[in-house]
């Protein structure tokens, strides 16, 4: 007797499935979204198919596969082109994800305007179609005029229906298609509301097929939240070629654009923008945002180099050690991990022979930078020692190294790249972990500027340190006393 097939109940919002009907989805917790779906799965115990069908094309050795050259078209926005690998590839699907209000629409409107005007493109001006499901054409027009993104080749449409959106594409045959956002577009071919998992996946799949068949680059906005909603960009990463995350803090104007996935370029690139009333401005040298520019040294400050993706950025750590005003000394941290700073305070106190335990300690970064790189440990310890001494570390001194609980200064990755960035910005005395000078010299021999000793014309002097005690012994040589 043939066995019956078990029904499948699936959530129309997130795709979660269950063997029985429930009133509330077990994944997204939505009520009334679980319904029986067609094409039920076979009951447990049935044998899966093991026979195959003849393939239309045989598998080939990789050595016989012809190499295809990737053709890129620059958008004209240099930092955006940098993060995607040099320009857009025909048929490339790019997902730009970020929290609401961070500036995704402004960024893509700027990109659309540059492409429409032909900036950096050999073919000149091109038709660009910008479709928004969140704002009206009039609202987009107000923003476009505010940031100067006005062009006769930039076409605007407000649409929530997928079929009508595709009609616009067929009518205008754009060189670039921008959809803002995928959560606001719905297809009549599938159930569920716009923004639900089923709709988001279906809309993205259809748009991707259209983009690749027409060889039209597609930029798609994906809204995300701090809670990483199930209908957010995470569910779409495998459907697109490139995933960019646009990050920012509401208290600062700095915006970071990261490549989390890129089939046509590096997946760890990062670029910076600064948001203003006139739109987004490219920040070509973001290191200037995270450090103070001063003519004389001040106590409690030390500069280091952190890695953001493949990019080396200078950052300044500041510390204040002062007399405690309460029975329990206070600890305040901004821009760094508080648990790690607490560990570094304890390690530094041991090397200082006890000058921090009964005092208030505050540690912060400059410019709102958020540092999680262990290579910044040594700079934190030096800033603490400088404030407690009190001695002011020289303006040409920079510290690199991870500090262990034992006080050992451990090597850090990408040291040669960090040293090169420090040298470029004029830092001449660098503290580095023991055994790394030769590593930097070998890397420098592959490029100009440093000889086999780790120095060269204009190159910094590298001082190796093995333990935090060595650093404290060097403090009088790399700092000056503070009067009073």
Key attributes of the depicted protein:
484 residues, alpha/beta, Rossmann fold, Ribosomal Protein S5, domain 2, 4-stranded mixed beta sheet, 23 strands
Notes on the structure:
With 484 residues, the protein is of the alpha/beta class. The chain has three domains: 1-38; 78-284, P-loop containing nucleotide triphosphate hydrolases (Rossmann fold, 3-Layer(aba) Sandwich); 289-481, Ribosomal Protein S5, domain 2 (2-Layer Sandwich), CATH 3.30.230. Helix content is 24%, strand content 25%. The protein has helices spanning 78-84, 104-117, 137-147, 162-172, 197-214, 338-351, 377-388, 415-424, 437-445, 468-478, and strands spanning 8-11, 17-18, 34-37, 93-98, 128-132, 154-158, 176-180, 218-223, 242-248, 254-262, 270-276, 279-283, 301-308, 311-323, 331-334, 359-365, 391-393, 397-399, 402-403, 409-410, 429-433, 461-465, 479-481. The strands form six sheets. It has a nine-stranded mixed sheet, sandwiched between helices. A four-stranded mixed sheet has the order 13-14-16-15. A hairpin with a 5-residue loop joins β19 and β20. α7 (377-388) packs across α10 (468-478). The chain is elongated. The chain starts with 7 loop residues before the first strand and ends with a strand. 41% of the residues are buried.
């Amino acid at each position: 007797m043939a066995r019956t097939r078990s029904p499948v109940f699936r959530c129309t919002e997130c795709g979660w499935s269950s063997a029985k009907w429930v009133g509330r989805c077990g994944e997204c917790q939505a009520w009334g979204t679980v319904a029986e779906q067609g094409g039920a799965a076979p009951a447990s115990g049935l044998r899966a198919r093991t026979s195959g069908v003849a393939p239309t094309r045989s598998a080939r050795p990789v050595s016989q596969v012809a190499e295809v050259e990737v053709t890129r078209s620059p958008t004209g926005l240099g930092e955006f082109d940098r993060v995607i690998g040099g320009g857009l590839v025909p048929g490339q699907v790019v997902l730009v994800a970020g929290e609401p209000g961070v500036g995704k629409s402004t960024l893509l409107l700027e990109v659309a305007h540059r492409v429409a005007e032909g900036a950096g493109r050999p073919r000149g001006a091109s038709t660009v179609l910008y479709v928004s499901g969140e704002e009206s054409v009039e609202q987009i027009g107000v923003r476009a005029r505010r940031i100067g993104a006005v062009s006769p080749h930039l076409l605007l449409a407000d649409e929530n229906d997928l079929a009508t959106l595709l009609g616009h594409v067929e009518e205008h045959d754009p060189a670039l298609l921008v959809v803002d956002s995928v959560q606001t577009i719905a297809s009549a071919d599938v159930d569920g509301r716009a923004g639900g998992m089923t709709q988001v996946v279906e809309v993205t799949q259809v748009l991707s097929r259209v983009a690749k068949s027409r060889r039209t680059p597609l930029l798609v906005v994906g809204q995300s939240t701090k809670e990483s909603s199930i209908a957010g960009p995470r569910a779409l990463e495998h459907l697109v070629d490139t995933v960019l995350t646009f990050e920012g803090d509401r208290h600062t104007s700095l915006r970071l654009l990261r490549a989390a996935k890129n089939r046509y370029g590096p997946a760890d690139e990062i670029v910076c923008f600064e948001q203003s009333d006139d739109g987004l401005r490219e920040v070509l040298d973001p290191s200037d945002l995270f450090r103070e520019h001063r003519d004389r040294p001040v106590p409690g400050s030390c500069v280091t180099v952190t890695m953001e993706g493949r990019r080396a950025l200078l950052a300044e750590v500041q510390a204040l050690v002062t007399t405690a005003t309460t029975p329990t000394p206070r600890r305040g941290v901004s821009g760094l991990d508080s648990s790690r700073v607490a560990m570094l305070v304890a390690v530094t106190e041991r090397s200082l022979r006890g000058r921090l335990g009964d005092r208030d300690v505050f540690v912060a970064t400059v410019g709102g930078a958020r540092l999680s790189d262990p290579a910044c440990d040594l700079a934190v310890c030096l800033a603490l020692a400088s404030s407690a001494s009190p001695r002011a570390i020289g303006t040409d001194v920079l510290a690199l190294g991870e500090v262990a609980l034992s006080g050992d200064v451990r090597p850090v990755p990408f040291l040669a790249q960090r040293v090169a960035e420090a040298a470029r910005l004029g830092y001449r005395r660098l503290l580095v972990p023991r055994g790394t000078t030769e590593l930097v010299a070998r890397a420098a021999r592959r490029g100009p500027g440093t000889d086999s000793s780790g120095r060269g014309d204009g190159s910094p002097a590298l001082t190796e340190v093995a333990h935090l005690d060595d650093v404290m012994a060097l403090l009088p040589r790399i700092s000056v006393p503070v009067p009073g």
